[in-house]
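Quick question: what would this complex look like in 3D?
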Amino acid sequence: MYDDAKPAEALSFEERELETTLRMLSPVAPAISRDRLMFHAGRAIGRRSVNLWRSAAAALVVVFGLSLVVRPDGPVVREIIYVDRVVERSDDNPTGWPARFAFAGAERNAAGADVIAVSGESNYLVLRDRALRWGVAAAIPLTSGIARPEQPLRLDDLLDLPSQDPPASRPAGRGFPNGPFPGEHL
Amino acid sequence: MKHHSASARIAWMLVLSVLFAMPPQALRAAAVGDAGGAEVWQLTVRPQAPTRPALRHALLTPVADQTPGNAAPMYLLATARTEQVPHRMVDAAVLQQKGLPPADNDDLMHYYLEELPLDKLPQADVEEFLRNYQTAFGFLNSAAQREFCRWDLPTRTQGFETLLPHLNGARHLANATSLRIRLHVARKETDEAIGALRDIFQMSQDLTQEGLLVQSLVATGIGALGCKRTREIVQQPDAPNLYWPLASLPRPFVDLRLAMEWERAAMLASFPQLKWVETESFSAEDWNQFVNRLSRFSAMAMAPERRRGGGAAESLGPAALGVAVFPHAKAHLLARGVTEQEIAAMPSAQVLGRYMLEQYNTKMDDMIKWTALPFPQAQPGLKQAEGELPRAGDASPLRLLTQAIPSAGRAAFSVARLDRQIAALRTVEALRAYAAGHDDKLPANLEALTDTPAPLDPTTGKSFTYSTEGNTATLESPAPPGGHPREALRIEVTLAK
């Protein structure tokens, strides 16, 4: 119907009038912009998502608040956890060693307190494990490393007898509890 | 040029960082050039023929001098008394006032024992220090003369729950006796020093009787303390030659095989259910009790610092463990010649219990059997036996059980090292004896020591490596295969005129 190759002078009058009319037409701005449409669509979706997250967060805040206030009694889970026990020395317990764990391995922590490795009743095995890896001296620290007020020990004290200081002239030898033994010059 | 300068700066920074990161002991060791980390003894001795009578200075109480009775109660009195002695700390101001060198350790016993050379030992102060140990020394001396030692520990009833509170007291007492020897040596009281040394060796020997492995390790440590004091004694100008007393000490000094047998006794006492397997009355309830006890035991068997979460076996209950073990147990019994029909007729718990007991005994026997051999022959076998034990984290259900088997390889070397110290001291005494009869000359080789033969190195089964330079002889013993360089020993013996 339309032929580019057709020269202008070959157009009929009607055709030339139509051409003139068409040339006078100017484009009209569309009522709906594609870009705008896409923008509004995206914003609508985003708002819905934000609202969803806001609702979820609000619900969580409410649940958390309620859980702080209302604490229902649930099943109690009991778990035994063995931890190193710090044993303080005292007059009653000058060595700092609990009687039950008198032979447990002990270490000194940074604060200088004796840390007794309380591993239950079978602590011989822990001790053996350490002694084989570190040697006896490192695995079993001597309890003599505990400072106590210095005072001479005497048999009278041990037996809770009244003090009876031996006279200076008392003969020393075997049978005298705190005296030198034969060959003893200490 | 600039590049070289920057590299040098970085290298120096690295060197300084390493130096600052090294502990003082390591720096000290590096400074003295300790033969690549080996333990080094530097001894100055004088020629001396063996004492006559040869065993006048016996290092264990001779049978003729023993007194009737059990030594253990006397040792317990001695250790209990020792533990009551007040501990004393170093007072830096007092040391300064007395012109003594500053202490590295705040323990006064350690200062006197390990830090002060003999010629600087403040004799009056040490005597005063030891006065509180008089009663304990008396009990110790009485114990060391008793004809036998039976501790009568409840190991066969309480198993691994047996407490050993006397061991710390024994170590403390050994330290105090060791200091007493130093004081006697400083005062030239040789007979008294050797008398106290005998108490130390006898206590060490008696501790190995009827004891678990830890008790034997403590005994080994006390024996090593005796060797340390012996080194001081033999360097004194008038020191008697202790070749024959040293040669008369038991070899091995500590019976590791016996200690391992006590470990087995403790294990079976800790799991009494296992005893019933052999009487064929091992019930499902026994299995439940056994597994529950085993799980608890497993949680406690390893030092806290080595626990790295439980393996799969720890999380299994009795039923699940039974299901996991049963196929192995059945295969084990079939291999032992038990028929399918006989297994089918046996209660499941009986099959499981028998498997567990036999597996434990097999693995334990594989370890114990090597401890009956000399260390050089035993070491490869012990290593292999240890390698075949399930390790921490293994899924093997047997791991729970085999955790009770101690690493005898390390213990065996500790015992052999003590024997090596005794053998080395004996060789030093042989050199002194040779020099006394050969114009104060050292022998060209150890084979020349015919009157006082040189012992073999107990850690290698061969002679010590021997060389001389002038009036100094060097004895060397390598670290065991796979061992740390510091487990080697080098002894430099200088013969003073």
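Answer marked as accepted. The first strand of chain B starts at residue 39 and ends at 45.
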